[in-house]
């Protein structure tokens, strides 16, 4: 059985949703970031980087959303979470890489400024800069969704639960997310999916309060 190590409300929500979408039996293992459980010796044996998500597959550990989402989509093709056309495959990977390497990192400057500066004044600047960049990325996601049902078009893919993570984070820090008409409509469509709602309820997502 698969085993998912995750923290409620963290980026691991994307992999959590994907596991529900593919209908694979799995075990949930909460790692509470707010309590520092990701830095315990027990969890560092699972993921020495001290991050979530981590997916245990037959005793082997796979980390990073991009890798986990790709593996789940390809391992369970019946769920149709992965494009078939090679160019669309590349676009899916490109989008997930951008979400991971740019959008997530901008938010990390807000939530974890100590990673990027040791001086308190510099940390304040990092948070301010990160907030501006994160909002611009959310606006970019909104523009990408214009005229589309899902992030890549008409097909729901593993990119979609990943994109939902950042709408939730924007809501959490009280950005005016509802001004993003296309992104908000996307969020509403996502919340109509049983797999998504199951995870949002399990993780007590801020999106449930904002709906």
Short key terms for the protein model shown above:
single chain; 211 residues; Glutaredoxin; Glutathione S-transferase Yfyf (Class Pi), Chain A, domain 2; 2 domains
Please, could you describe this protein's structure?
Helix 1 (13-22) runs parallel beside helix 3. The chain has helices spanning 13-22, 41-46, 65-75, 86-111, 120-144, 159-172, 181-190, 194-202, 206-210; strands at residues 2-6, 26-30, 54-57, 60-63. The chain has 211 residues and is α+β, with helices and mostly antiparallel strands. The protein folds into two domains: 2-79, Glutaredoxin, CATH 3.40.30; 86-193, Glutathione S-transferase Yfyf (Class Pi), Chain A, domain 2 (Up-down Bundle), CATH 1.20.1050. The mean pLDDT is 96. It has a four-stranded mixed sheet with strand order 2-1-3-4, with helices on one face.
Average residue-wise pLDDT = 96
Structural class computed from helices and strand pairing: alpha+beta
Overall number of domains? 2
Question: Which architecture of the largest domain does the CATH hierarchy give at level 2?
Answer: Up-down Bundle
Regions with pLDDT < 50 over 5+ consecutive residues?
A: none
């Amino acid at each position: 059985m698969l085993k998912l190590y995750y923290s409620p409300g963290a980026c691991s929500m994307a992999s959590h949703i994907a596991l529900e979408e593919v209908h694979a039996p799995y075990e949930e293992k909460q790692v509470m970031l707010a309590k520092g459980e990701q830095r315990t010796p027990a969890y560092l044996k699972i993921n020495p980087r001290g991050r979530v998500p981590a997916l245990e597959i037959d005793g082997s550990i796979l980390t990073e959303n991009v890798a986990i989402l790709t593996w789940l989509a390809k391992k369970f093709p019946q769920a149709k979470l992965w494009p078939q056309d090679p160019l669309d495959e590349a676009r899916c990977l490109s989008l997930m890489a951008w979400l991971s390497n740019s959008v997530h990192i901008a938010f990390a400057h807000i939530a974890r400024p100590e990673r990027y500066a040791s001086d308190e004044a510099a940390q304040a600047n990092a948070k301010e800069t990160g907030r501006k960049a994160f909002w611009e990325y959310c606006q970019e996601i909104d523009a990408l969704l214009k005229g589309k049902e899902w992030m890549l078009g008409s097909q729901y893919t593993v990119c979609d639960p990943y994109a939902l993570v950042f709408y939730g984070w924007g809501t959490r820090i009280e950005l005016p997310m509802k001004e993003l008409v296309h992104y908000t409509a996307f969020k509403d469509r996502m919340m109509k999916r049983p797999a998504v709602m199951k995870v949002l309820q399990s993780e007590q997502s801020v999106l449930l309060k904002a709906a």
